[in-house]
Design brief:
The protein has twelve helices and eight strands. Helix 7 links the parallel strand 6 and strand 7. Helix 4 packs across helix 5 and helix 5 packs parallel to helix 6. The longest helix has 21 residues. It is globular and about 55 Å long. The termini are far apart.
Length: 315
């Protein structure tokens, strides 16, 4: 062995803690995936390819987003119903308070229940015009907490709500944002799913703050595998997330190299998930942007396998 070898080994031990990040993963995780309703036939084809690719991982649920101001109401409803009808997946529909009366929202919820949808992601929602503040209608739900309470009166839905590890951009303070989350949980929400973030410390700190405020519901980290930094910046501006400068550096020069960009995106997101797993996290929610590859790869690294694999091997 050359004299330099021990120094290299010691450097690796300092960086990795002495073992690979994914060495101890056991596949003991639960995952969920988020999609958005497609606008075109081509986008619909991409979405259903992704749904079918991810279905064998048997996620806890998959959710379908709802456009600003309810702009995708019909497409959201159609997508959720098709998932429920044509797959084995538990489908969850997003529902917001924006530009609709209580009666209208309650009717949408009743339609979902009649269609066999038992899970709602209840959100206050974004105004149709970006940059404007949310204003509740006099006859509408004024907040996500009110929406949760109203939905529980319609039917015994399972309800997920949003949480903001770096604080909602409209919140007066971090404390008031945590208080708002507690109101949603106290109103009957079963879990909170966080907006995306890029450091494990951000999530663990938020977990501690929520626990200190008396929130004992499940808090699931929302993971966004980033392949387009410019697009992610737009998302981040809307939800109060910060993008570290090092991420810009990692993606610099990859605009015309999509395969390399995918590899970098997978590496960044996988490392975050590996660190969360090492810290005890066992549930993950992936913002797929209707593409399966990155989410599937990360789930694989965390030890999750298609449920029929063992049976096929035994056959």
């Amino acid at each position: 062995m050359s004299p330099a070898a021990p120094a290299i080994e010691h450097a690796h031990a300092r960086i990795s803690g002495g073992k690979p990040l994914f060495e101890d993963v056991a596949g003991d995780i639960g995952v969920s995936f988020e999609f958005f309703p497609p606008k075109t036939e081509k986008m619909e084809e991409t979405l259903w390819d992704s749904v079918k690719t991810l279905e064998p991982l048997q996620p806890r649920f998959v959710s379908v987003t709802y456009g600003a101001g309810g702009s995708t109401r019909q497409r959201t409803h159609a997508t959720v119903e098709r998932i429920a009808r044509e797959t084995s997946l538990a489908a969850a529909a997003h529902l917001t308070c924006v530009e609709a009366s209580r009666d209208e929202i309650d009717e949408v919820a009743r339609e979902y229940w009649a269609a066999g949808i038992r899970h709602i992601v209840a959100l206050r929602g974004d105004p149709p015009e970006q940059g404007k503040r949310f204003e509740a209608r006099a006859d509408g739900y004024a907040s996500a907490a009110e929406l949760v309470e109203g939905l529980k009166k319609v039917a015994p839905f399972e309800i997920s709500v949003a949480a903001y590890p770096e604080c909602h951009p409209e919140a007066a303070s971090k404390a008031s944002d945590i208080d708002n989350l507690k109101r949603k949980i106290d109103a009957g929400a079963d879990r909170a799913i966080t907006q995306f973030f890029f450091s494990p410390e951000c999530f663990f700190r938020f977990q501690d703050e929520a626990a200190a405020a008396g929130i004992d519901a499940e808090i699931v980290p929302g993971i966004l595998p980033v392949s387009n930094v410019a697009q992610t910046r737009k998302f981040a501006a809307m939800c109060g997330a910060s993008i570290p400068a090092w991420m810009d550096r990692l993606f610099e020069g990859l605009d015309n190299l999509p395969a390399a960009r995918q590899l970098v995106a997978a590496t960044v997101a996988a490392e975050l998930c590996g660190q969360l797993y090492a810290g005890g996290v066992r549930h993950f929610h992936f913002y797929t942007l209707n593409r399966a590859e990155l989410a599937y790869a990360i789930c694989h690294l965390l030890g999750l396998r298609p449920q029929n694999t063992a049976q096929e091997q035994a056959a």
